[in-house]
């Protein structure tokens, strides 16, 4: 394997070139394989993805083209001990996020205490005044959470961002595993890897546990999609199918007798839990955006009356805000009474004049992000940006400093990918998926590993040229 590509930590090989324990059995197996055979397996994986239709749409392109998700067949491997430490930190953070949501829409104790500035949510479009004083069924706001993690050392995992609005990517986690098991069945008999294939069943169970009191013994769960032109439509359809749930669009639903009901061949039937993949603004044209054709007129009144569970709860998007993220260490401490197990990446809030000065003085070395941004868009990566791009971003920062946060350019860990020349290190992140219900917090072992396929690149988003790989958590 080639050098560390400037990264501080190579997850497969130690500095002396020896293989780390997590990868020992995999490397023994790999060395016994013929290179030509592995290359053929790579083509096989690509054709598998094409047959399955695992694609995503890229917005902003002239033709909004549909692309194949690049898949790398070398797994990212995490030991059982590493995963236990990570799980404790993830659970703590998700508990804090849910408590924060409840507080923000009720007594706002964290604001009163002076730990969080009121300005962060008063003019924040993700904060919904319509949710004030309302508690969702079971007290759960964040039913499905994706916590993005990066690694910078042997025991150094950092939270890069929180995704508590409509986290995506779980279908790729599941398909990556299915592809690996189909291509390398002998590997899974040789190495004990914790399963992820039961995620849809666990998701269905977790959502059903959040059903409102009016639901019967077998709550009806449906997935609300914006439709086939949405970039994550494949995932919406996949999860509905795997859960045995109905896949619906806004036009399939209407409010009848105080319940949200879906059109079926035998008339309208009530829905108890709606796993929505539609943003807040489009959910109900009578409450939010009146021009929305994606939502259901009147659903929010039914929700407030306890007639349906919406997952995730409207208004949870504020916890995805990167300005709020900057306060997560204080938020975790406030609601759990504990120091954060998983630290944040060091963050400068550009709304603060001293922080803004530091960011402007050091722009070529920093990563700057929009507080509402996602998908790798609207950001500046200082070390790889041109002087012209830096100058343009400098003007944006001066014009709207409250719209940005900045972070150091991290030395992300690398994992090997398979290339024509053999294994080569590439930077990765990890999105574990977490389910929350009144019955507890359920963390799927592994998650989605996204990988920057270009040498030296730090951008892992599929929309920006990144790919994915299977994430293995070893059984003890």
Automatic annotation (TrEMBL):
InterPro entries: ATP-dep_Glu-Cys_Ligase-2, CP_ATPgrasp_2, UCP005522
Recorded superkingdom: Bacteria
Coiled-coil ranges (or none): none
Ranges where the Circularly permuted ATP-grasp type domain occurs: 75-452
PANTHER family named among the record's database cross-references: BLR5612 PROTEIN, SLL1039 PROTEIN
Protein name: Circularly permuted type 2 ATP-grasp protein
Lineage of origin: Bacteria, Pseudomonadati, Pseudomonadota, Alphaproteobacteria, Sphingomonadales
